[in-house]
Amino acid sequence: MDDREGLLDVRTAERMSIHIYSRRSLMGAAAAARVGENMRRLLDQDRRLRMVFAAAPSQNELYEGLVREKRIDWSRVDAFHMDEYIGLNGAAPQSFGTFLTDRLFSRVKPGRVELLSGMADAGQECARYSELLREAPIDIVCLGIGENGHIAFNDPPVADFNDPVLVKAVLLEEACRRQQVNDGCFSRLEEVPTHALTLTIPALMAGGQLFGIVPGASKRTALQAALQDPVSTDCPATILRTHPDMVLFTDREAFGL
């Protein structure tokens, strides 16, 4: 796809490039084209590619587009994800590992998939996953922004731009848990787990290239804060403006154009 189809405007916020599309479907297709292009470029260097993926309905169009992308040697891709609920069985439909497996990994078959386990001892799992992340730099991170401005599960009360660890266990803010109900992942707030494992903000910001996918009117307030507010953990996504290679894809509804 030509990633200019449906493109309304390109803006900047500090170091971030913002691409605004007329429709969510065109936004997702354009994001997939850009991510796919960068994947091919890195894979053409005869090396493995290490990627981190977000698990959320906001990423659906991106993943559908990546499945359709051609000439990507997924057998040389090492795939990681950002977060997982503590105490939720990995086979549960709400599990983020299940989400990514169903929508992407089972369809493109990366050569290596490393999933966080919400059923393991939290401390041991944080240590295990941190070691996997330390094996080599992460090349590409595909992420979203939560309605409370979080990235991964770094909600405002637990976000730390200078976190000394790569993976940690966190208490989820109620606004974050309500978003899971609003997204249709759970039917009631009481069903949403209260704790989760998450990659920290330094772990995400260490990625060589960051691609943000933020569609829908429900994200407008958070997106405006992420682009306009002072950089602080009051809106963790504000830190994304400081990354040297960050492209954000959004639509008219989210941006408010």
Account of the protein in words:
Helix content is 32%, strand content 21%. The chain has one domain (15-218, 228-255): 3-Layer(aba) Sandwich (Rossmann fold). By secondary structure, the protein is an alpha/beta fold. It is built from 8 helices and 11 strands. The protein is globular. The strands form 2 sheets. The protein has an 8-stranded mixed sheet, with helices on both faces. A 3-stranded antiparallel sheet has the order 5-9-8. The protein has helices at 24-43, 60-68, 96-108, 122-134, 174-182, 201-205, 220-228, 252-255; strands at residues 7-13, 16-21, 49-53, 77-81, 83-85, 112-114, 140-143, 167-171, 195-199, 209-214, 246-251. The model has no long low-confidence stretch (mean pLDDT 96).
Which features does this protein show?
eight-stranded mixed β-sheet, Rossmann fold, globular, 257 residues, three-stranded antiparallel β-sheet, Glucosamine-6-phosphate deaminase, glucosamine-6-phosphate deaminase activity, NagB/RpiA_transferase-like, 8 helices, Glc/Gal-6P_isomerase, alpha/beta, identical protein binding
